Structures are given as structure tokens and as C-alpha cells.
Amino acid sequence: MSGAPHPAVSRVRKAVRDRLTDPSWPPGEVFVAVSGGADSLALAEAAAFTGRRLQRAVRGLIVDHGLQDGSARIAATAAKKAKELGLDSAEVLTVEVGEAGGPEAAARKARYAALRSAVPPGALILLGHTRDDQAETVLLGLGRGSGPRSVSGMRPLDPPWGRPLLDVPRETTVAACAALGVTPWEDPHNIEARFTRVRLRHEVLPLLEDVLNGGVAAALARTAAQLREDSEALDTLARGIIAENGQLDVGDLEPLPSALRRRALRRWLLDAGVRELTDAHLRSVDALVGRWRGQGGVWLPGDLVARRAHGRLSVLPAPTTKGD
Ligand SMILES: Nc1ncnc2c1ncn2[C@@H]1O[C@H](COP(=O)(O)OP(=O)(O)OP(=O)(O)O)[C@@H](O)[C@H]1O
């Protein structure tokens, strides 16, 4: 490209530079998850451009889910385009997709696991989620009555994941690709109206934009950002309740408003290694605090038990036979 870059290209590059030079972002190696769509190709170019200036290598990772005919070819094409856009390398990861939770969720789970295990500890993996993706996430959460964590949308930094384009509209990534002379891959699922998110994108959001005279995606993204700020403040308070040795004192938890108490419990359970914690588990552990005194236990995923004894809560490996 000669002369000044196209404004769309500049906007994407600026978004990436602002994040990669943000001191709160990790300084380690940078990877870009490239699907071959407009968002991640524009992201790849901007990350490569910024990486050269910052003298940081930027590598591409492309996941081939093997779910549709020609997926290997689509992945190879995405890798080629990513290299042409300036990435130092582009590697295709082939994954086995399970069946649990439906095809989309299973593919996402396999994809995130493969990306995570392909990078060294401390590395950053950039994802191409845009402001429109954020708006869809928030709207979907609201419509489903989800809790504040879901309605507050995706976080820009959630190591190893980094999402530098959360303030960039999708039309900008599309315009950037056009200006760069690269043709993005169109995921056929993005057009099939049977997916809820797709209908939200193509039917609900345009209608809302029309009724409210525009600016809806930006407004939803702002709402999400405000909720995230509130939520982070609550998290800080919740963390303060957990003792340095990782123990929780029932006496400290009892007087708290339930929102703060559950925050503390969630954080504590996650720190104690409980994975796939559901709201039902959390409610049961919360009941250990509130309803009665004395001893008690709650079975948790991963063969763990939350136990109340002598006014303290602890997480322990479950005994081999159930017999509480
Ligand atoms: N096959 C893939 N290979 C590598 N990266 C991918 C692939 N598919 C998606 N990504 C990354 O994830 C980002 C988001 O893509 P998409 O919205 O399709 O994924 P998702 O994980 O289903 O989204 P969400 O997290 O919103 O549910 C892309 O911009 C890209 O960075």
C-alpha cells in the first residue's frame, strides 16, 4: 500500500496498538486466532503491523474443525492470507470436535482448548471479536435473563485471550480487508438464519438500530463496559473476604449482602480448583453459610467437596464413597 493507509485500516491498527502498548496487557509472545473471516484477517494485519513496530513476533493460529467438506482447504487458505498480511508464521491446528452441548458449542470448546495448548505460558492470543459481537452478546444475555457476568459482555483482556477490537465495528474490519485487497472467508453459518445469534445480527439489531435512530451497538457495548467496571469493583471487595491462606470464615460471610457473598464464594471455589461451577452448586454452598450452623458438605464437580466445619469453609477431595 502506498501513501496514507485507508481510514479503516488505520482504525484497526490503532485499536491493536492501544492494547498491545497498554501496560496492563502481558508483554509476552503474541498469537492471532485467524478464522479467515474479515474480523480476524483485519486483526492479523494490524497485529503484524504493530508487532513489527514493537519488535514483537506475531504468529497466526488457524483451527481446522474438520466439520465441513473442504475445511482443510479453508484453513490452509486462511493461513496463506494471514502470512501475506505480514504475520511471522501461520500454523493450522486440527482438532477433534466432541458432541456435548451441540455442534457450535462443541466446536468452540475444542477450538479454545487447541489454541490454548498451542501457545507457551504467558502468551497472548488475540481474538477478532468486534463491537457488534459484543452488542449481540449483551442483547442475548438480556433476552435470556442471564446474570450480570454475561450481560457485561466479553472482557478485552482475559488471559490468555485478548480482544483488541471490542470497540471496532464489524463494518470497519470489512472495509479494512477490502482496502488491503484481501477477500475474507464467509462462514456459511453466518447466513443460515437458524442460529439465534445470526437472527439477532440480521433481524433484531437492524430493527433496533432503525427504531432508536442508530448507535445501538455502541450503546450496548458502553452498557457492557459500565457493568464490567461495577463487577470488577465487586470482585475486588469479594477477594478481600478470602483469607490469605485461602480459607473462608463463615462469620465474615454471614452479614454480607447475598450478591457480595456469592461473589466471594464463586471466586473462592474457582481459586480452589473447582471447574464448571454451576449456579446450583453455588446456591448449595451458599446455603452452607446461611441456613444452619454446625457441619455440612456439598459435592462439587471434579470429585471435590465444599465442607463447613468449625466456622470455616474448605474445599477437599471427595471421599471415595458417598456417605455424607
Ligand atoms: N477456526 C478458527 N481458527 C482460529 N480462530 C478462530 C476460528 N474461529 C474463530 N476464531 C477466532 O475467534 C474469533 C471469534 O469468532 P466467532 O465469533 O466465530 O467465534 P465464537 O468463539 O463462536 O464466538 P463467541 O466467543 O462470540 O461465541 C474470531 O475473530 C477469531 O479470532
From TrEMBL:
Residues 30-203 form the tRNA(Ile)-lysidine/2-thiocytidine synthase N-terminal domain. Residues 1-21 are annotated as: Disordered. It is an enzyme of class 6 (ligase). ATP binds at S35, G36, G37, A38, D39, S40. Keywords: ATP-binding, Cytoplasm, Ligase, Nucleotide-binding, tRNA processing. Its EC number is 6.3.4.19. It is found in: Cytoplasm. Residues 248-313 form the tRNA(Ile)-lysidine synthase substrate-binding domain. It comes from the Bacteria. It holds the Pfam family TilS. Belongs to the tRNA(Ile)-lysidine synthase family. Ligates lysine onto the cytidine present at position 34 of the AUA codon-specific tRNA(Ile) that contains the anticodon CAU, in an ATP-dependent manner. Cytidine is converted to lysidine, thus changing the amino acid specificity of the tRNA from methionine to isoleucine. The N-terminal region contains the highly conserved SGGXDS motif, predicted to be a P-loop motif involved in ATP binding. This is tRNA(Ile)-lysidine synthase.
